[in-house]
DNA sequence: CCCAGCATGTAACGGGTTACATGATTAG
DNA sequence: CTAATCATGTAACCCGTTACATGCTGGG
């Protein structure tokens, strides 16, 4: 289970509250791992009990107080151990592919709208990634852009480079999906309506 | 939840036992949806109770008897209804990406072996898909290859075309992953060992 | 004789999802 | 006044995973 470790990585990049983590999971971390606030609170509580994270009450004005979590020494050790262990390849889950194969037993043309909708969503996600890349990693060429967020406890250069390569993975994924959905649309249109 | 519908699609393509379904989920259907035999038996029992599938005892010689499941009329209706409903985009889960970002707080070079391992697995999966494509959908050009499996109750041409376009999606995915993992490897090597 | 394959299951555990709950402040 | 944002939580349910169990046949 990687949610624990995803949270550790996020807290190492920048300490924060459960609420803040939930928002990060809707954004940068969410590019490759999703979690709701319920899951996050549950895991934070468990990790606190195990001593992987430290908590600090932060009073705020104009807002509710919050608990700021940060990674403890033993949490860092746990992460390092996990990094050593091989993981098995993720099992794929493409509900849309189930639908596409299922369309042979319904009306292929009826799926066109749905596939177009997915294509649009991937297009938006791609635009979002590209905007983030431009903002955080400079226009095109060399480095030199200021860090958008305070770097965590690691080497700032490694942190940035690795965040960037993961983002490039997201970009490649969205491009691949868009191209494939075009292929799917052409196929559905060629098949036409139910006999 | 799509496991129900993935099973319905597989049974429409060809009726079979829980055991046979489990093997298909390790192969063709498993390209985009995974399931273990325990899940499959559980769902088959539920769908039988709901009347989505019919069961037929098939005595065999030299092997244990089996229960052959096939989709009932109401199962087909349920599938058609599900095809109409929009689904939300799959939430991404890339454990390897968590590790890559986590490597900034450990030793980036130590991840190289693991990433190479994943690259090899994707290469094998790609080879497997390409072999399947050559076998089932002809060398390169036009159609004309004999169906490798008896077609289900739909239009055979639509069934084949849609299976092929899903397979092309798998192929595109593996190619994208291999290219991205090369990018990751180059990045990790550039960063070198822990300071 | 033992292992691999065929075939079907039960049990337990943990994670993910959805719904519900509370309470404060600020902006429209 | 109402809605949105910040902030933390409980409860229930289902799904996915892992381990265990049974029994038969054929091949090395």
Automatic annotation (TrEMBL), chains A, B:
Low complexity compositional bias, start-end: 143-154
Domain of life per record: Bacteria
Domain Transcription regulator PadR N-terminal: 7-81
Pfam families for the chain: PadR (PF03551), Vir_act_alpha_C (PF10400)
First and last residue of the signal peptide: none
Region Disordered, residue ranges: 137-159
Residue span(s) of domain Transcription regulator PadR C-terminal: 92-189
Record-linked PANTHER family: TRANSCRIPTIONAL REGULATOR YQJI (PTHR43252), TRANSCRIPTIONAL REGULATORY PROTEIN (PTHR43252:SF4)
Protein name: PadR family transcriptional regulator
Lineage: Bacteria, Bacillati, Actinomycetota, Actinomycetes, Kitasatosporales
């Amino acid at each position: 289970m990687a949610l624990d470790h995803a949270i550790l990585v996020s807290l190492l990049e920048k300490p924060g509250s459960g609420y803040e983590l939930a928002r990060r999971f809707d954004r940068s971390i969410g590019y490759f791992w999703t979690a709701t606030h319920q899951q996050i609170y549950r895991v934070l509580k468990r990790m606190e009990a195990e001593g992987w994270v430290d908590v600090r009450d932060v009073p705020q004005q104009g807002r509710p107080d919050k608990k700021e979590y940060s990674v403890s020494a033993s949490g860092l050790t746990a992460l390092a151990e996990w990094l050593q262990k091989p993981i098995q390849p993720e099992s794929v889950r493409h509900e849309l592919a189930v639908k596409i194969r299922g369309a042979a037993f319904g009306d292929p043309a009826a799926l066109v709208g749905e596939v177009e909708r997915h294509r649009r969503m991937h297009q938006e996600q791609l635009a979002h990634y590209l905007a983030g890349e431009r903002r955080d990693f400079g226009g095109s060429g060399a480095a030199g852009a200021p860090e958008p967020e305070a770097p965590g406890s690691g080497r700032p250069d490694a942190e940035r480079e690795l965040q960037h390569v993961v983002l490039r993975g997201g970009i490649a994924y969205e491009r691949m999906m868009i191209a494939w959905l075009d292929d799917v649309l052409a196929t559905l249109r060629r098949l036409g309506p139910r006999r």
